[in-house]
Amino acid sequence: MAKRDSKKCDLVLSGCKYSTSIFKRAFWYEGEIFEHGTPRNDMLINNYNVNYRSRILNGLKIAKKSKVILYAPTFRKGNNLEIYKLEFSKILSQIKNKYGGEWVFLVKLHPHLSSKSKDLVYGKDVIDVTAYDDIQELLSISDVLITDYSSLMFDFALTKRPCFLYVPDLDEYMANDRNLYFDIQDLPFNHATDMDQLLLLIQQFNNKKYEQKLKEFSSHIGTYENGKAAEKLVKHIHEVCFKEKERKLYEAI
């Protein structure tokens, strides 16, 4: 199926050199790879005005002064819902002690778990946003992200805001679900295998060291993300589809 799908593609977008190498070997794709970043991430790099953030917060019925922590885990093959359970109140308390201010906890589970979210998301200042249709908007308003094996970590890294990986099933996941493209130890994000460790990582988080790790990782993977991916893609599509010769052909028809 992947081989058939690759033949349907005329262009593949890449956010970094590392992704380009993966696409070539994983998708059986020999066509053009557009190495200028991914349009969905432009909003995470560019500084949108206050009204943009306010619109999203207002739609979620969150006070403008509130800070946001987002939990967005990926999907597992098994039906063990315990993996997704966090002690939201303890994390909120730790976050408030670390950074101050009022915080709201957003939880976006995988769509496969939408029918189970009511059993997993609960507590004061905790909001289930599993049905929210644009994860990039949620990332853009979040001050802290907690995820696990999801590639969302790489998107969120563009904001340079704190990201923590909660992976209580690390060994099991790698044995039964899938391998990882990176050794988790080589990632710039701190990871925890239990709740006590996660709380400690939040308490001890050092933003200066984190930003240095992000810088080194970005250099290692050869990022193309600069906030202009959509602009460059539109220009490329226009050149391919609507250049002078093609335009005359379509007008004649």
Automatic annotation (TrEMBL):
Gene3D superfamilies: 3.40.50.12580. It is an enzyme of class 2 (transferase). It comes from the Bacteria. Pfam families: Glyphos_transf. InterPro entries: Glycerophosphate_synth, TagF_C, Teichoic_Acid_Biosynth. Its EC number is 2.7.8.12. The keyword Transferase applies. Keywords: Transferase. GO terms for molecular function: CDP-glycerol glycerophosphotransferase activity. PANTHER family: TEICHOIC ACID GLYCEROL-PHOSPHATE PRIMASE (PTHR37316), TEICHOIC ACID GLYCEROL-PHOSPHATE TRANSFERASE (PTHR37316:SF3). This is CDP-glycerol glycerophosphotransferase. It comes from Sutcliffiella tianshenii. The lineage of its organism: Bacteria, Bacillati, Bacillota, Bacilli, Bacillales.
